[in-house]
Write a structure and sequence with these properties.
298 residues; eight-stranded mixed sheet; globular
């Protein structure tokens, strides 16, 4: 449960971010996705911490971080705002330049962070996503069926909040077992219970909906404003052989269009929840990518 890492709570941008951190070496920021917390890194953290100083936060709206009510335009859950949280968090820890890895929603935060704060990112890894605008633009019956939550969670409050809240544990278990994850046999009861503790509250459910509402609105506006801006950091992507992204999209080509440098990557034998399903394979990919350059702290 990552108890070997120090736990801290740091105030940034009007919210409090909960995190675990520790290790030795260049800083590496790890960002989780929906509907989880920093606990997704439990299978890779010990190996990475031998060579990197890990920072594993709960994004705003998730885990034990603050869950403010959404703004009218959902801007306080935009990936721009969430990325700024992470930059301010790292600065508070004395780390102004760092490696960066994000899974799922954390990958979308990492994408925006690399664009808005290129001076902060040494190397980037993205796990099982294609760009948000790419995925929305290619929506068809298959995608809308497999990723129905992209369209359910963005409905105006309190519709999705009420529906999920009526059976929150069932919804969480269904989600964790989906997207090629085959019922999540790799997740023990203690982990399931921890995810449920963090997700199954009205505040957390609302925050998750706000995250997705922002993705379908203000995040797309920010993407449209980027013009020809590209990710400057060396980037690697990995995706699951049984997941939706690998079946319906072309992650390497999709991310190449967003990056200034050639993008590397490969498919891994997993569904969507790669950090928990194949932690050994992912750790090897991460070490190979992030070892390429040493970075400084402050």
């Amino acid at each position: 449960m990552l108890e070997q890492f120090q736990r801290s709570r740091i105030d940034v941008g009007g919210v409090t971010i909960n995190l675990r951190h520790g290790g030795s070496g260049p800083p590496l920021l790890l960002l989780h996705g929906f509907p989880q917390t920093h606990l997704i890194w439990r299978g890779v953290a010990d190996r990475l911490a031998r060579e990197f100083t890990l920072v594993m936060p709960d994004l705003r709206g998730y885990g034990d971080s603050s869950k403010p009510p959404g703004d009218a335009d959902h801007g306080n859950y935009s990936k721009r705002r969430m990325a700024l949280d992470m930059v301010e968090l790292m600065r508070a820890l004395g780390m102004r330049r760092f490696h960066l890895c994000g899974h799922d929603r954390g990958g979308r935060v990492a994408h925006r962070l690399a664009l808005d704060h290129p001076e902060a990112v040494e190397r980037l890894m993205l796990i099982d996503i294609s760009p948000t605008e790419t995925m929305y633009a290619a929506t068809d019956r298959r995608f809308a069926t497999l990723y129905y939550h992209w369209f359910m969670l963005i409905q105006p409050a309190p519709l999705p909040e009420t529906l999920i809240g009526n059976s929150a544990r069932f919804y969480l278990e269904h989600t964790l077992g989906g997207w090629g994850s085959q019922g999540a046999p790799w997740m023990d009861q203690a982990v399931r219970d921890e995810y449920a503790r963090c997700f199954c509250t009205p505040q957390a459910i609302h925050a998750a909906c706000e995250d997705y509402r922002a993705a379908a609105g203000i995040d797309l506006e920010h993407d449209a404003q980027d013009g020809w801006k590209r990710i400057a950091a060396p980037t690697r992507v990995v995706w699951g052989s049984d997941g939706v992204v690998g079946r319906l999209f072309e992650p390497l080509a999709d991310w190449q269009r967003k990056c200034a440098l050639p993008v590397a990557g490969r498919v891994l034998p997993a569904g969507h929840f790669i950090p928990e399903q194949v932690p050994d394979l992912l750790a090897a990919e991460m070490l190979a990518h992030f070892r390429a350059d040493a970075v400084g702290g402050s």
